[in-house]
Amino acid sequence: MQYRELPSDLQSLAIERWQGVYPEHRIEHPIAQLMALSDFAFRLLQQHPQLGWWLLDAEQMQQREVPAPLPEELTTLSEQDCFQLLRQYRQKYWLKVMWLDFVCKNDISDSIRYISKLSECLIDAANCWAFSQTVKQCGAPLDEAGNILPMLVLGMGKLGGGELNFSSDIDLIFTYPKNSVTSGGRKQYEAQVFYTKVARKLIAALDQVTVDGQVFRVDMRLRPFGESGPLVMSFAAMEDYYQDQGREWERYAMLKARVLGPHTPYSDEFKKLLRPFVYRRYIDFSVIESLRKMKQMIGQEVRRKGLVNNIKLGAGGIREVEFIIQALQMVRGGRDVALQTPSLLAALEQLMHLDILPAETAQLLARDYLFLRRVEQYLQAFDDQQTQTLPDSGIDIERLNFLLETDGFAKSLACIDQTMKSVREEFALVIGEQPQEQNPCEESYGFAWLESDFSSFGDDLTDDVSQQWSLRLDEFKTSLRKRQMGTRGRDILDKLMPHLLELLVTKKASFDVFNHVLKVISTVVSRTTYLELLYENQGALKQLISLCGHSRWIAEHIAKYPILLDELLDPAALYKPLPLSAYKDEIRHQFLRIEPDDLELQMEALRQFKQTHQLRIAAADATGVISVTTVSNHLTALAEAIINQAVDLAWQQMKTRYGEPTGATEAKKGFAVIAYGKAGGLELGYDSDLDLVFVHNRDGDSDTDGVKSISSRQFYLKLAQRLMHLFNTKTASGILYELDTRLRPEGNSGLLAINLESYFNYQQTQAWTWEHQALVRARMVLAEPSMQQRFDEIRNSILRQRRDKDKLQQDVSQMREKMRRHLSQDSKSQFDLKQGHGGMTDIEFVAQYLVLNYAHQSPELTRYTDNIRIFECAERDGILCKEEKQLLIDAYCLYRDTYHQQSLDQQGRCIEMNDTFKLLADGVRNIFERCL
């Protein structure tokens, strides 16, 4: 151990901290140095000063022993004692690792291997304790020979590879060999119940924060089905899942999986079970494209989160080294068994031995990887934080410079940048992700950008248009003077703009398109990553121009939310919305990557999911790929998926605070959402709000089961309020949807969440005719089957009542007249598509009247909530003649198509009246007057 003097600021801190912890002792410079370099080490030595003398024992520091954290007798070990022993063990040995790294300059490969062994020992000890405690309560699950069936713990990621970070969370998956029942307890338990109890105890032993802190943050989201899946599954269930539903990213994740703890025959059995899923028998080059897409998603995530100087996720970072090695493992691992290892460094060595990577390249990658891991280790050990971001100010910069032995931060950055550049070059060779820099364009476009002069493009631009473009470009450049742009940003902009102008001119773009594109550029001009995205991806730039030409709404949507530029990278996905049934799965999978307690990120993710998929729908819509009815179906399915996810998030937050209502579970919440209006009628538009009503099926006598217990009724009210917060709060990405709950019983003065039977009673005894009209388009969009069935019964019961025809006609026509007076924008030359005479609202009122007046004799009328199928049913039952039905449907479809196109172009809902619209509007008015 060679002591090196600290810089003055760190030296002063070292002396100050030594005097605070060891005031009566002569200074031991290595210990003082450790406390100056790590706030975490300082806190530990404050709590346990005796450990400082242990660190000075050279023989102890040379050993890599992994002693047992817990005593052999586990059945009598209390939870409190177990938790304390595990946490104090981590504190002691993580302090040792800091000593090795910060004072002894230990080799980083040894440090991460040692931390992984220590971590595995802690996890296995917690598993053994949790298992023994559960056996004491429930008995033990046995195989046919009477042997105890253990719970296996899979370590994923760097834990599985034996290369764990200093302050990493741990990704685990739990499994057990086979289904059986317990023996030896007061009653028998099914295996699933038994192992779930073990799993919960194990997670608490590691993850729960006590006065001694936390052992590890435990992340279970990599398990089959993610957060919604069972906590533990049998071998057979795991095999079925990966064979039938396993996805490419799960292959990638499982490559690093390793059964933790002592080796058993079950370890080999499980490894054999997984092998066909991870490794193909043939050389599998298809994995390269999957990994390229995963890397692109990571790049998008980096931009979404605004990550800068991230040595893990940034270009050339640790993740790219992992991608290089694991790509080659997955390509070749089916044939070359030596590559079937979760250890990155072991796999890299095998790739060299098999001549898949040249020795020089393999050695360079190993050197670069270990250097970046060393920097990561330092960053995390400064304060026991899971970070991979370089410091931008303060004492951590001095610490990093000292540990890297550089003269200043500029040299530290240069060294890190050079390493990441080397990794990036190798990544591009293996994964094939080369920046698509554009070819130099003609000097005339560079001149046009610099001088705002388009006069040389007379063949493509008229003098008037040329003048318009010049003035607009001048305005744009003037606005840049007020914006903060670094040197790199200005350089990229100066390269990008000539190419952009060339594309606009050669495509003979209109001034509107030119203007919209400049608005988008203006919103991202201070965010260099987006300028680089457009410059390095000519396809994305072309897509931007194309979409701005198709729709003003799309142009303004991208300008408002520039994060959507990421979507332009893949045209195949951009113009192909998800299948209607896939939105719920897609959002659920996206949320697996988000920490359950990160509310801010969850709210942003909901909004970004909506914006991303709205853009895809709009792109397909604007280019004629899908019809207006299909557009509404997609927008409605998207909204339902978001409602579903938002309810799950709100439920988790309420459950954490209050527990769950008696008898309720996450699968059977006893809570439902009724959609009215456009959402209920499957006719959502791009800017539609959501008319929702919240109901539950609990009475006022039951309570929640949490420590802070409240009545079930209060719980559901708070759940609805939390949903309102999730939807209506304005974040950096805007609001989610404008949520309108005024259609609930008693409107704004009524309860935000009401018992379903109280809802029924209100509809029977107090509801106005217009509320029954609204019920025609009401549909449950989230509910467990029993509540869905009950709502259908209630809706049918109300809508199929026999009504006084004269009073119904009077109520409906008066309400329509009142709306028309206040809302119609009809004029002599303009037709209001929505509120005008013979417009969409008239058609909707006809449909509602037909249901309310005739459903008692034609119950099929209540089956659907959309107008078209109501009219078709009315014709089948002889209520409308064929000509009337067809006119109403033709008019409604044309109005919707036109209104939709007006929305995409942001032109409002009024159009110039022509013969076609006049003929249809007159026909609708005649039918309206005949009925009402």
List keywords for this structure.
932 residues; mainly alpha; five-stranded mixed sheet; globular
Report on the structure:
With 932 residues, the chain is mostly helical. Helix content is 59%, strand content 6%. The protein is built from 39 helices and 14 strands. Strands 2, 3, 5, 6 and 7 form a 5-stranded mixed β-sheet that branches. Strands 8, 9, 10, 11 and 12 form a 5-stranded mixed β-sheet that branches. Helix 31 links the parallel strand 9 (690-696) and strand 10. Helix 19 crosses helix 21 (487-506) and helix 37 (867-876) packs antiparallel against helix 38 (882-904). The longest helix has 31 residues, at 108-138. The radius of gyration is 33 Å and the shape is globular. Residues 434-439 have low confidence and may be disordered.
Outline of this structure?
By secondary structure, this protein is mainly α. Helix content is 59%, strand content 6%.
Return the average pLDDT rounded to an integer: 89
State the helix count.
39
Helical/strand content category: mainly alpha
Outline the biggest β-sheet.
5 strands, mixed
Helical content (DSSP H or I, runs of 4+): 55-70%
**CA-CA gap between termini:** 96 Å
Low-confidence stretches: 434-439
What does the overall shape look like? globular
Radius of gyration: 33 Å
The percentage of residues in β strands lies in 5-15%
Q: Total strand count, please? A: 14
SSE inventory with pairings:
Layout: H1 8-21, H2 29-37, H3 39-47, H4 50-55, H5 58-62, H6 79-102, H7 108-138, E1 139-141, E2 152-155, H8 157-160, E3 170-176, E4 182-184, H9 191-207, E5 218-219, E6 232-234, H10 235-244, H11 248-254, E7 258-259, H12 265-278, H13 286-305, H14 318-332, H15 344-353, H16 359-381, H17 395-404, H18 409-431, H19 443-451, H20 463-480, H21 487-506, H22 511-524, H23 528-536, H24 538-550, H25 552-560, H26 571-574, H27 583-591, H28 599-622, H29 628-658, E8 671-676, H30 677-680, E9 690-696, H31 712-728, E10 739-740, E11 753-755, H32 756-765, H33 769-776, E12 779-782, H34 785-799, H35 805-823, E13 830-832, H36 840-854, H37 867-876, H38 882-904, E14 910-912, H39 915-931
Parallel strand pairs: 3-5, 3-6, 9-10, 9-11
Antiparallel strand pairs: 1-4, 2-3, 2-7, 8-9, 8-12, 13-14
Helix pairs in contact: 1-2, 2-3, 6-7, 7-9, 10-12, 13-14, 14-15, 14-18, 15-16, 16-18, 19-21, 20-22, 21-23, 22-24, 22-25, 23-24, 24-25, 27-29, 28-29, 29-31, 32-34, 33-36, 35-36, 36-37, 36-39, 37-38, 38-39
